[in-house]
Write a structure and sequence with these properties.
Keywords: Membrane, Transmembrane, Transmembrane helix. InterPro entries: Bax_inhibitor_1-related. It comes from Rhizoclosmatium globosum. This protein is 68% helix and 2% strand. The protein has one domain. About 14% of the residues have low confidence. Strand 1 and strand 2 form a beta hairpin. The protein contains ten helices and two strands, in the order H-E-E-H-H-H-H-H-H-H-H-H. The chain has 321 residues and is mainly α.
Amino acid sequence: MNTRIPLHLFRRNFSFTPLLRRRIGGASSSWRVSEPSMHFQQQQGSKASTFPWTKALGLGVAVGLGGVAIDAALNSATASNAGVVTDFDTLATNSFVREYLSESFRYVGAALALTASSAFALHRSPSFQRAMARSPIAASIGGLVVTIGAMIGTMNTDPTNTVQKHVLFATFALAKGAMLSPLFFLNPAILARAGLYTAAIVGSLSFVAATAKTDRFLYLGGPLFAGLCVVALSSLGAAFLPASSVALPFLHSLSLYGGLVVFGGFVLYDTQKVMAHGRLVSRGVQKRDTVNESIGIYLDFINIFVRMVQILAMGGSNKRR
């Protein structure tokens, strides 16, 4: 099966890697290798904080109200000159598309569970930490090769070959977890908050896209790809510039906050793309392949999550100052 791999999926695999640095946003927390055990340790200047449930509740209310406002603004009925609402095949009128989208999101959830499990297990593995300590650059490049190779293999495997496709998909998610395992050196409360915030952002934007009365978000593909190129270039520039460079803070902010906007837009785009493919599948024009459909939304979630982690880590370091 000859499947065309969208170029933006490659860029989304690379876009978060510059954020996994040994110093996050100039924070005082850094990672070092102890000589006797060669285990990574995190130097923390303050005690681990407990999870702020009141802030989480406030965030939930804010995201809920924001989602309602965005839904009202973007999903208002599109009328023609005669005042007739445009007929559009929404989730409410097409049960097959609704089931197709739901199955795609189940694969997203499964991939995220595999990624989190892999990251946590490898973080607790002394042998993996020693390998990372010996050659971090080689380990990062190897992780990228395995991740992208597994993604290409998944997308090029015919959906009827379920065993091979699911094995490659699981390999893709597990390899991504290996690349994200250094995040577990951070305060667990930061990771929990970042996960909650990311789930709220992705969930609300997906709801907006899924309940849209038109396919307007599919037309964001071109601008989003251009924005993704800018974010990727700013990430690479920030990775190679010296710490004393005047342009470094600007590139860092562009990669961080610009990336949040771009990947938020990709959530809208990818959700409606899954729905559009579901309509084609229901008509027999395209093969059913919810595994491939889930990859884009999964990468959106990962990229937003990593940026939320960095924002929260930077906020904590600024408070300690």
